[in-house]
TrEMBL record:
<dbReference type="Pfam" id="PF00389">
    <property type="entry name" value="2-Hacid_dh"/>
</dbReference>
<feature type="domain" description="D-isomer specific 2-hydroxyacid dehydrogenase NAD-binding">
    <location>
        <begin position="111"/>
        <end position="283"/>
    </location>
</feature>
<dbReference type="InterPro" id="IPR006139">
    <property type="entry name" value="D-isomer_2_OHA_DH_cat_dom"/>
</dbReference>
<dbReference type="InterPro" id="IPR050223">
    <property type="entry name" value="D-isomer_2-hydroxyacid_DH"/>
</dbReference>
<protein>
    <submittedName>
        <fullName>Dihydrofolate reductase</fullName>
    </submittedName>
</protein>
<dbReference type="GO" id="GO:0005829">
    <property type="term" value="C:cytosol"/>
</dbReference>
<comment type="similarity">
    <text>Belongs to the D-isomer specific 2-hydroxyacid dehydrogenase family.</text>
</comment>
<keyword id="KW-0520">NAD</keyword>
<dbReference type="GO" id="GO:0030267">
    <property type="term" value="F:glyoxylate reductase (NADPH) activity"/>
</dbReference>
<dbReference type="Pfam" id="PF02826">
    <property type="entry name" value="2-Hacid_dh_C"/>
</dbReference>
<keyword id="KW-0521">NADP</keyword>
<keyword id="KW-0560">Oxidoreductase</keyword>
<dbReference type="InterPro" id="IPR006140">
    <property type="entry name" value="D-isomer_DH_NAD-bd"/>
</dbReference>
<dbReference type="GO" id="GO:0051287">
    <property type="term" value="F:NAD binding"/>
</dbReference>
<dbReference type="GO" id="GO:0016618">
    <property type="term" value="F:hydroxypyruvate reductase [NAD(P)H] activity"/>
</dbReference>
<feature type="domain" description="D-isomer specific 2-hydroxyacid dehydrogenase catalytic">
    <location>
        <begin position="8"/>
        <end position="315"/>
    </location>
</feature>
<dbReference type="InterPro" id="IPR036291">
    <property type="entry name" value="NAD(P)-bd_dom_sf"/>
</dbReference>
Amino acid sequence: MSRSDKHILVVSAIRPRHMEELAAKYELHRWDQATDKDAFLANVADRIAALVSTAGVGVPTELIGKLPNLRVITSFGVGYDAIDIAACTARGIRVSNTPDVLNDDVADTAIMLLLATLRRLVVGDHWARSGQWSEKGAMPLTTTARGKKLGIVGLGRIGQAIAARAEPIGMEIGYFGRSKKPVDYHYEADLIGLANWADVLMISCPGGAATQGIINADVLKALGPRGFVINIARGSVIDEPALIAALRDGVIAGAGLDVFHNEPHMDRAFAEFENVVLYPHNASGTVETRDAMAQMVVDNLAQWFADGTLVSPVN
Ligand code: NAP
């Protein structure tokens, strides 16, 4: 198959250097840059065999329906809740993601948010910058992570990397998931049970229908007024109005959040809370990790065009 036979639809671009590499090897069709997307598609739809997108943008299910010869979707990111995997599987369309290469940066971010929230880093930063330190003296005392119970919702690749970092900090580890893992950590088969047990609830499960709003008002109540929530998974996993109410009313002590409903148009209510540390969905956002993720997209496409298999298949 020559370059002119390998047509790829770009729904969301990856890193510039990797886009150049793809452009040198394949015929790229920039749906992401087209103003009239339907007219653009009418000219190329039949030729598209592969599609590149990112986890944040995903792939509209109706777009998949308009590409009769689509065979493979390579997605930049580990979460694939914005791609209808069942619809792809039914059509025989293979999907790949970029697992593992982002575990360390995402787990580091989880611990960064955990410590920043418990130790009130942003409040302390403001205390120093604004001159309150010299005017009022020391900032109010915070609470330690050492000796606290960390309840991880979803002990997968990233959840385990978070646990490995939390242990040397001196935290006790527990988790909730659909199945018990071969680890020594405390297991709770019930989410309310984990919230009752934990001081800090760490969300690291996938988004999508199965986990929609599972961190609800009852879970937050069970976590209690000295409990914290850290979310590096997906905004959809938390019932956000319930979280905002819990933060406002002291139902929980605070939260560290990398992910939100309706990104990037985050609910502005969060900006009003001093007991919250915010990060704009940037847990994997280092040059090194984003390059490694982009390389996995390039490698998945190369392998698929070579022998029809994928480096990191989802379905
Ligand atoms: P993974 O290895 O597949 O782990 C997911 C874990 O969640 C598994 O332990 C799984 O365990 C559990 N789980 C699955 N469905 C569940 C459910 N319905 N209820 C409770 N637990 C469930 O995935 P990963 O690589 O660690 O990534 C996890 C998620 O992190 C991704 O899906 C993505 O959404 C998010 N993420 C966010 C960022 C960011 O920038 N903030 C970056 C990377 C990833 P069981 O099967 O035993 O339940």
